[in-house]
Write a structure and sequence with these properties.
- The chain is α/β, with parallel strands linked by helices.
- It folds into 3 domains: 129 residues, OB fold (Dihydrolipoamide Acetyltransferase, E2P), CATH 2.40.50.460; 256 residues, Alpha-Beta Complex (inorganic pyrophosphatase (n-terminal core)); 97 residues, Diaminopimelate Epimerase, Chain A, domain 1.
- Helices cover 40% and strands 21% of the residues.
- The protein is built from 20 helices and 20 strands.
- Bound molecules: manganese (II) ion.
- Manganese (II) ion binds next to loops.
Length: 573
């Protein structure tokens, strides 16, 4: 009786012993011990956590003046305003950079400054502040550049700007290299001298904080842009990011700005139904696409558009770019996959091909997901070769690249995503050295982390409402999963789109279950089976009635949950 076999390893999150103050504060707010246990097991076991999850989102925003150089930034902007100086805002070409750039442009314009956006060409200018942008600044007689989501690694370019008589205010969230740029201001929460309480802001999040500094509460209406950038940059949706995303979703759902309304319409998403998954999988790729296969400036103009007609035309352009990006990616993936499979046992794959620079990050990401190991993908279509790397976890790309610093023309990134420029003649050397850093391959067994293990009758509306307090779910705050024991399968049906529908009985009552992307269950589960499931609790409203529904992630034979040994309790200080 070990059928149906679960696909995942089920793991109960380890339970901390609840801190008495946390328990008292939570219970004073009407939270159950059960929910407080769920929060604590996710690492949210102090007063800040209760604020982030329960209070108005604005309560979770920190004082922007705590950001390093925030005061210098504000003073220089004020001086520019006083002198009627013209400004260039330089943003990165990805969704985080574009949304951050839009926030900065809108904020400075609101102060009355003459501001133009500059989005670099991915192919010609690459990452970071570009010399082309500095030339443009000088030609247009602008005295100030504000960077967004980049600039921390642009010491040389910032020196060039200084020599040309242009001040640079860097606003960024990337890790700091050993040589810091001599910018007038370096607003980056990662600075070693940073007193900022939460360093997990995205580039657009830093821009949003500076907007708050310049405009006060007026800046809150730009949280929609910061929310998109935060989600697109895969920043964890906890702490201050959670506040930003909650504020942003509210704006997007009720009053989307013209550009985003047009973009959502093209993507077939009703504003009221926007959630973090839709930001990640419908909105961000459309903003990114135009920077990958065309001119990212068009996406900036879409975000800045003030009327629906202009927005509609730009949204059409973005849609066309997105389709082109998909086609290019489909073709390139076939070739890249084949190249990676030439060395099936390598702990990490390093491949090179004549793929467009704009999609190598997508290829690396897709293959890293598929094959559960890091991938580094080079585009050989220009010299130096441009490389993009993605790691599914367990291997820190930024740290490894830092150890190979001498081999690159330039490099940067995070643990899970990094990029580099490499001279073609150093490619073999790079391969050898990176592989020697990676050690043997340890395949990761896919697991599901359970927030709770309960019996079938306990899966009810009360629990559904309690767990709803964890929304919005996303990176760093995954949707709550519950192990539910003791169902009998009444009906199994393969549904369209590769899904399986189950009707489950508990006592005299039945519950609907939907298993997205689990075609296999239609064959493995049989009527009459006694099963345990791992599911996300949800509900459907139809004809004025609400019905409980289980979004089932995995099914195992009865007794699977009982056999789970809870990991030892951890004492949280
Ligand atoms: Mn970013």
């Amino acid at each position: 009786m070990d059928r149906p076999a679960p696909r995942y390893l089920w793991q109960l999150r380890s339970r901390p012993v609840l801190d008495p103050d946390f328990l008292a504060a939570g219970q004073a707010r009407g939270l159950s011990r059960r929910l407080l246990g769920v929060l604590a097991a996710r690492g949210h076991s102090d007063g800040h956590a209760l604020t982030a999850f329960l209070d108005e989102p604005i309560a979770g925003l920190h004082d922007p003046l705590l950001l390093p150089d925030a005061r210098v930034f504000a003073e220089r902007v004020e001086a520019a305003r006083g002198r009627g100086e013209r400004v260039l805002v330089f943003g990165d070409f990805d969704a985080d950079g574009l949304t951050g750039l839009a926030i900065m442009v809108l904020s400075l314009r609101r102060l009355g400054l003459d501001v133009e956006p500059h989005v670099p060409s991915r192919a010609d200018e690459g990452h970071g502040l570009s010399l082309a942008a500095i030339s443009r600044t000088v030609e247009e007689e602008r005295g100030l550049i504000v960077t967004v989501d980049c600039g921390t690694s642009s010491a040389l370019e910032i020196e060039a700007a200084r020599l040309a008589g242009v001040d640079v205010l860097v606003t960024d969230h990337h890790q700091l290299p050993s040589v810091l740029p001599q910018a007038l201001a370096l607003v980056n929460p990662h600075r070693p001298d940073s007193a900022y309480p939460d360093r997990r802001l995205a580039g657009s999040g830093v821009a949003f904080k500076l907007a708050q500094l310049l405009l006060g509460d007026e800046a809150l209406e730009m949280a929609d842009l910061a929310a998109i950038g935060t989600v697109a940059d895969v920043a964890p949706i906890v702490g201050e990011n959670r506040s930003i995303v909650r504020l942003g979703l509210e704006r997007l759902r009720t009053d989307p700005r013209p550009g985003l309304a047009a973009l959502l319409a093209r993507a077939g998403v009703a504003p009221a139904r926007v959630d973090l998954d839709r930001l990640a999988f419908a909105v961000a790729p459309r903003l990114n696409a135009v920077g990958r296969v065309g001119d990212g400036t068009r996406a900036a103009h879409l975000l800045l558009a003030t009327d629906a007609e202009e927005a509609a035309a730009l949204a059409d352009e973005l849609e066309a770019a997105n389709l082109l990006r998909r086609e290019l990616l489909a073709v390139a993936l076939v070739e890249a996959r084949e190249a990676a499979l030439a060395e099936p046992d390598a702990p990490l794959s390093i491949i090179a091909g004549e793929w467009p620079v704009g999609i190598i990050g997508l290829i690396a990401g897709r293959l890293a997901d598929e094959r559960g190991r890091p991938h580094v993908v080079f585009s050989t279509s220009a010299t130096p070769w441009r490389g993009s790397a993605r790691s599914p976890g367990g291997f820190d790309l930024a740290a490894s690249f830092a150890q190979l610093a001498d081999i690159f023309e330039r490099f940067g990134g995070h643990a899970a995503a990094a990029g580099c420029d490499l001279a073609p003649e150093r490619y073999e050397d790079f391969r050898r050295r990176l592989l020697s850093l990676s050690g043997p391959l340890t395949p990761v067994e896919p697991e599901l982390l359970l927030d709770l293990a309960i019996t079938a009758p306990e899966a009810d509306y009360t629990l559904l409402r309690e767990l709803a307090l964890l929304e919005p779910a996303g990176v760093g705050n995954p949707p709550p999963l519950v192990g539910v024991a003791g169902f009998e399968v009444v009906r199994v049906r393969a549904a369209s789109g590769g899904h399986t529908q189950l009707v489950l009985r508990r006592g005299l009552e039945v519950v609907d279950g939907i298993c997205f992307g689990r075609e296999d269950l239609a064959a493995d589960v049989r009527e009459g089976d006694r099963v345990d499931v791992v599911a996300r609790l949800s509900s459907r409203v139809f004809g004025g009635f609400e019905t409980l529904q289980l979004e089932i992630r995995d099914v195992g034979p009865a007794g699977t949950l009982e056999r789970l040994t809870a990991p030892p309790a951890v004492l949280v200080a």
